[in-house]
Amino acid sequence: MYSAVSPYPHSALAAWQLALIAVVAFAGVAVWLGAVFLAAREPRARDHAAASQTPGLPSAAPAAPAAPAAETAVTAEADPAAEARPAHHAAA
Question: Count of domains in the chain?
Answer without folding.
Answer: 1
